[in-house]
Amino acid sequence: MQSLPGMDLRPTADRLRETLFNVLTAGNPSALQLTVWLDLFAGTGAVGIEALSRGAEMVHFVDSSAKAAEMVRKNLKSLGIDQGFAVENKAVANAWNDMEKRGVVCDFIFLDPPYRLHDLYQETLSQLADTALVKAGTIVIAEHEKRFDPGESFGTLRRYRKLEQGDATLSFYRRE
């Protein structure tokens, strides 16, 4: 999978991605079949592509960087993936507003903004708590630095699990 230079585009490490999907499937390999994903701040698209490879029906990749969105398209093409996805080159809030208008509801939402943009975590999680994209069973996962904690709760979203691996942490949220 190709990437772009710089620290803002930091693909989720293979080991962390494997751990994430092991947690989500928890011994049930078909747990992700026909699910809908939203990969926010998609970067290279590694997490969404992994979801597709594990049976997701649809993955919406969103990144405000035109270069990152193009990288996602190239990575999908290089893997022979030609359906079950949409790549949105827009600001996160604009993309999900459009998705809400189309009636999209997600089973999983993964967000991984550049680590240094701490405020973006709180802003995104707070806004997600109030969107129609999140239903009762939706799992929202935020990847962040181990030394930074985005928070326990945002509106109706509450963290129910925190998984640390190396310098990275995954925080899992769902509606109460």
Summarize the structure.
The protein has 176 residues and is of the alpha/beta class. It contains five helices and eight strands; from the N terminus they run αβαβαβαβαββββ.
Shape: globular
Question: Given the helix and strand composition, which structural class is it?
Answer: alpha/beta
Number of strands: 8
- CATH topology (level 3) name: Rossmann fold
CA-based gyration radius: 15 Å
Helix count, DSSP H or I runs of 4 or more residues: 5
**Quaternary organisation:** single chain
Annotated CATH homologous superfamily? Vaccinia Virus protein VP39
Low-confidence stretches: none
CATH architecture: 3-Layer(aba) Sandwich
Summarize the main sheet: 8 strands, mixed
Total count of domains:
1
User: How do the helices and strands follow one another from N- to C-terminus?
Assistant: HEHEHEHEHEEEE
Strand content is 25-35%
Main attributes of the structure:
176 residues, alpha/beta, Rossmann fold, 8-stranded mixed beta sheet, 29% strand
